[in-house]
Design brief:
This protein has no helices and 33 strands. By secondary structure, it is an all-beta fold.
Length: 507
């Protein structure tokens, strides 16, 4: 890989904007409502991070959490069995057993988690598709009746998909004027940025972007407020990057991004971490035989949260499809960066029916039905995890100990009374704020301008009200992507996603 750099110092005191492949970038004030100048709301100080509970349910568990969770029906044949919230030294060959209904009792290696709060059992041989696996632990298993629990390996009986139809080559043209050129590095051609309104304090902060297209050299890119290149790293082959941002690992600021192949909105790749000298620190891969998707690569202490898409059988008879139709199971994993152990795993198909998607199902499509489409993960400090599902128009709070749904907000199965202006469509980047607020990038439809919104969630009354909203500049529709980041002065920097998805992507 080739890179060009002016070596910026990665300080958390700078104003850093993390973008998800955005094409339009705008800074805005977040006090009140931007939808109606005569109906301004009182400004609300919305905290950046979660600090309180977003549920009245008891999500605590005094026992050991086991993943795959009890009653999971979609586990991978290559799955490890993870034990969490227990002293890692108690997970031994004699203290735990793992037995498949078809493959019998399994032997394997036990790898302690780096924090000492658990361990993973790595079987020497894979499980069989469709079999039931029974696990015993040294103490009570969360979500089970006692110290024994079972889960099922997912079926590989998936109805065949139609053959892909031939399509015209609609790859957009890229000219020399669209790319930057350097005499010192003639092979390096990052895209030119069109800055329509420069940051008056251009040198006070940097913008972090992951440009991607079939016709440019994609790579993590840092610019100043004028759009001038500060650092860029070219990636090779058909790879693209996404979710490029500054995070913290082992107490130090680092740059992170996802890199891999993107196929019409789904990614197959891995996460990368580099230090302030742009030297590789770690590469993070999905566990249990999966590949990491591009939508989320979030560091949390010494762990990483990632999204995964996996083709599985799903019941689409209610939509005119097969009982074992090809659908995409959205998976959430937490990975121990040092060991690669899976510390948490959740499957959408175990908790949200495949026929609840808000997107049309085409029985003639050659692609698996992406009914859920997880696109953000936000763990809280109270034992819950917030996930956003673009294709159900809903966000879900998960019980971390068991994987059970605590509540659903939005979509056709919402548990809340959605107040005026609160329903959202095809959303991204759902984040818990403080002890009652949630911010969301609301994509809306191809004919409706996108918004960034802040919601006040009254857990006791199960009601949601709008705190503020800001619509996209020039009322542009945003058909894909989008995010927002809070700055130190209370404003936000928003990546307004893609206003068009015309043309091909690599892969």
């Amino acid at each position: 890989m080739t890179s060009i750099a002016q070596r910026p110092h990665l300080s958390h005191k700078r104003r850093l904007a993390a973008l998800l492949g955005a094409v339009t970038l705008v800074a805005a004030s977040c006090g009140g409502s931007s939808s109606d100048a005569d109906d301004q709301k009182t400004p609300v100080d919305i905290p950046v991070a979660s600090k309180g509970s977003f549920t009245t349910s008891d999500v605590s568990c005094s026992g050991v959490s086991v993943y795959p969770s009890p009653d999971t029906a979609t586990a991978s044949p290559a799955t490890q069995v993870s034990f969490r919230n227990i002293d890692s030294t108690t997970i031994t060959d004699t203290a735990v057993t793992v037995t498949g209904s078809a493959t019998g009792e399994h032997t394997g290696d036990i790898v302690a988690d780096s924090d000492g709060r658990g361990a993973s059992f790595h079987p020497e041989k894979p499980f069989d598709a469709g079999e039931t696996v029974t696990v015993t632990a040294p103490e009570q298993i969360c979500g089970a009746d006692d110290s024994s629990a079972s889960f099922q390996i997912g079926s590989d009986d998936i109805a065949p998909l139609p053959k892909p139809k031939k399509t015209d080559d609609d790859t957009p043209e890229t000219t020399a004027a669209d790319l930057q050129h350097f005499a010192s590095e003639p092979g390096l051609e990052p895209p030119v940025l069109d800055v329509t309104k420069a940051n008056p304090n251009a040198d006070e902060g940097y913008y972090f972007m992951g440009p991607k297209s079939a016709t440019i050299d994609g790579g993590p890119m840092i610019t100043n407020g004028d759009g001038n290149l500060v650092w860029y790293q070219q990636v090779s082959g058909d790879d693209m990057v996404a979710d490029f941002r500054v995070q913290t690992y082992k107490g130090e600021p680092v740059l992170t991004w996802w890199e891999g192949v993107i196929d019409k909105g789904n990614g197959t790749g891995k996460g990368h971490i580099v230090n302030s000298s742009y030297e590789p620190v770690a590469t993070v891969e999905a566990g249990n035989g999966y590949a990491a998707d591009m939508h989320e690569f979030l560091l949390d202490g010494d762990t990483a949260w990632i999204t995964i898409y996996h083709k599985s059988p799903g019941d689409l008879t209610a939509l005119g499809g097969a009982k074992n139709a090809a659908v995409l199971d959205s998976i959430v994993q937490q990975i121990d960066i040092a060991t690669g152990n899976v510390l948490f795993e959740w499957h959408s198909l175990d908790h949200v029916d495949a026929d609840t998607g808000a997107v049309d199902y085409d029985t003639e499509s050659a692609r698996a039905y992406d009914y859920f489409h997880v696109n953000s993960i936000d763990p809280s400090g109270d034992g819950t995890i917030l996930v956003s599902a673009r294709n159900t128009n809903a966000i879900y709070l998960l019980n971390r100990a068991t994987g059970d749904l605590v509540w659903t907000l939005g979509g056709s199965q919402t548990d809340f009374d959605m107040g005026t202006g609160t329903p959202f469509v095809f959303q991204h980047d759902a984040r818990l704020r403080g002890d009652r607020y949630i911010t969301i990038f609301d994509n809306e439809t191809k004919k409706t301008p996108a918004r960034i919104i802040a919601l006040d969630v009254d857990i006791d009354a199960k009601k949601v009200s709008l705190v503020w909203e800001h619509t996209a500049p020039d009322d542009i529709p945003v058909v894909a992507q989008g995010n927002l980041q809070f700055l130190e002065d209370g404003n936000t920097v928003t990546g307004w996603g893609s206003s068009s998805v015309e043309g091909k992507t690599k892969g």
